[in-house]
Amino acid sequence: MSEIKITWFGHAMFLFENPNLKLITDPFDEQVGYPVPELEADVVLVSHEHFDHNNVSLLKGTYQVIKETSPVDINNVKIEGCPSFHDDAQGKKRGTNIIFKWNMSGVTIAHMGDYGESQLSRQQKEFLKGLDVLLLPVGGVYTINGQKAWEFVEELKPRIVIPMHYKTEHCKIPIKGIEDFLKNATDIKHFPSSVTISASMLPVKTEIWQLASA
């Protein structure tokens, strides 16, 4: 199996690359505060239609936008979604959100978007079983907070958790930092904005990988 390069641009925006596919998640615009990159990709996932997650116009070239839960197969990568809410009031405050999951180079990855529910539904738990990499919001206010995110980590037990959607020196959105999430963790690894993984190098027990934004 080939390796996957993961790059975090900040907030909930990542680029996943293997020899067959470039996949972007939740691209933001300049209002968020991070530098807006110029990128090309084959596919972009949009968890919901808010400005800090749906700026697909930053992408160059030809690409496919996915903002529905129906399964799609692109270049031998199956992408599927699970419905969720952006808040703990059945979407009455901030609407709906999609949890995306895909298998790339033998690694199963899930991106929670702006997940805001107080607990995982039975459907969501089943959808998120057996994850290798979980991209998890931890900043609270508009999503689950650090303590709730940690409860989900203990429940789902993914191999790798990459925290996202938290306050940094660049982020202008009024959310909290990563501290409340990390205080529960014992195995934390720090990386630059890009890291390479493969199915053969996945840890046996859950590790928290904190990436620096690009």
What's the SSE blueprint?
Blueprint: E1 4-10, E2 13-18, E3 21-25, E4 39-40, E5 43-45, E6 59-60, E7 64-66, E8 72-74, E9 77-85, E10 96-104, E11 107-111, H1 122-127, E12 133-137, H2 146-156, E13 160-164, H3 179-182, E14 188-191, E15 194-197, E16 207-211
Structure description:
There is one protein chain. This protein is mainly β and 214 residues long. The chain has one domain: Metallo-beta-lactamase, Chain A (4-Layer Sandwich). The protein is built from three helices and 16 strands. It has helices at 122-127, 146-156, 179-182; strands spanning 4-10, 13-18, 21-25, 39-40, 43-45, 59-60, 64-66, 72-74, 77-85, 96-104, 107-111, 133-137, 160-164, 188-191, 194-197, 207-211. The strands form three sheets. An eight-stranded mixed sheet has the order 8-9-10-11-12-13-16-14. It has a six-stranded mixed sheet with strand order 7-5-3-2-1-15, with no helix packed on it. Strands 4-6 form a two-stranded parallel sheet. A hairpin with a 2-residue loop joins strand 10 (96-104) and strand 11 (107-111). The protein starts with a strand and ends with a strand.
